[in-house]
């Protein structure tokens, strides 16, 4: 598991602004910081991918360069994951994309279940797939979505990216997706009874796109 804020990285500045209650009121700034986090994650993940040597013709000769021959497929959970996804797409600019619609449905008891509406995806057979969602709270949405993808395709390698995760969410993902590679911005210890991460940053989707009704 890779934890970004355990390193000295400019990404910590982006994360601090995302958490800051005053700065995050600027939704454009919030989206851009999420996008920049995606760019950093993509750069870090790229170091673990398979590279091959290619010849590149320059105006003066040939240059041998190690490059990624097959880009990963980037998947995200709507709607909160869109800026994070875009940041990763800025780096993996030849990647195909998959989109998953999943949301919490709260029962009268206060408990909630995860509802999935649809998945739009290219063929994932034999491919490396990166699934991103800015918040990994209980981990139930992430596990449900990844298992749904795996039920239909033989994924070669699975990476999961979240900006902030709870300890409980990480444990749930590890228990249910033991082969997945986790890339986390920061881990917070607490979670409320409504499954909001503390200190967290609030509702990433609302902060990025406006409050839903």
UniProtKB/TrEMBL annotation:
InterPro entries: PRTase-like, PRTase_dom, PyrR_bifunctional
Broad EC category: transferase
Keywords: Glycosyltransferase, Transferase
Residue ranges occupied by any Phosphoribosyltransferase domain in the UniProt entry: 8-210
EC numbers for this chain: 2.4.2.9
Pfam family, one: UPRTase
An example Gene Ontology molecular-function term: uracil phosphoribosyltransferase activity
NCBIfam families: PRK00129.1 (NF001097)
Protein name according to UniProt: Uracil phosphoribosyltransferase
UniProt organism field: Pedobacter alpinus
Name of encoding gene: upp
